[in-house]
Design a protein that fits this description.
By secondary structure, this protein is mainly alpha-helical. It is 82% helix and 0% strand. The protein has two domains: 30 residues; 181 residues, no CATH class.
Length: 217
């Protein structure tokens, strides 16, 4: 049942990407370049505002995907991808320390997967666990950051695994945002290809990863 639900979610996300592309390039009178020009009109401070917003996102549970798309629309593939990468690392860092100091409070209010096996792996093979769950996100971006801080994974292991693990998603958002601005169908299909690869990996490896983490028998 869950596998079917994940397929449905993946299809809906692809439909949303195509819908946004169509909305910006066909239906709306406001062209994405106007959004781009408005944000960049603030000059050098505009990327600083974006990075601060990304860093603060875990405090208010704001979806980082919206910030990533906005950055790629505004700054293009480059330096948009650099800003997405830097901002995501800032958000991951703030989430990690929220988990370190407020983990028990968060856990009491939110349903978070946790067991003895997973705790052992997080504490002893933290880099690998974070890397796998960044590449194949079985939980939300901020949630994994909270969990990592709470389980006291070394920050150096956590952030280095995050730096590598977010690259595929970062490339997907970067190419998608640029496809909206440029109207390039090639970039749109590249973004969808990234999404398909990530979704397929999650679909086929989900059960193995959950079993490895002790989340299912």
């Amino acid at each position: 049942m869950r596998s079917r639900l994940n397929v449905v979610k993946g299809c809906l996300f692809v439909a949303a990407l195509i819908g946004l592309y169509y909305l910006f390039n066909v239906r709306l009178s406001i062209h994405p370049k106007e959004i781009q020009e408005f944000i960049t009109s603030f000059g050098w401070i505009s990327p600083v505002i974006f990075l601060v917003a990304y860093t603060l996102a875990p405090f208010i549970y704001f979806p980082s995907s919206l910030l990533s798309i906005t950055a790629s629309i505004t700054y293009g593939i480059w330096p948009g991808i650099l800003y997405i990468w830097t901002g995501a690392l800032g958000g991951a860092t703030s989430g990690y320390f929220i988990g370190r100091f407020m983990g028990r409070t968060i856990f009491s209010k939110r349903q978070i997967p946790w067991n003895v096996r997973m705790r052992y792996l997080m504490e002893n093979r933290g880099f690998l666990v974070v890397l796998v769950l960044r590449l194949i996100p079985l939980m939300g971006f901020s949630m994994l950051s909270y969990l990592s801080g709470f389980s006291k994974i070394k920050y150096s292991h956590f952030i280095s695994a995050t730096m590598i693990g977010i690259i595929p998603g970062m490339l997907m958002y970067g190419t998608f945002g640029q496809s909206i601005v440029s109207g390039s169908r090639l970039l749109l299909w590249i973004a969808i290809a990234f999404l398909f690869i990530l979704s397929a990996a999650g679909f086929f490896l989900r059960k193995k990863i959950k079993k490895w983490l002790g989340l299912q028998p």
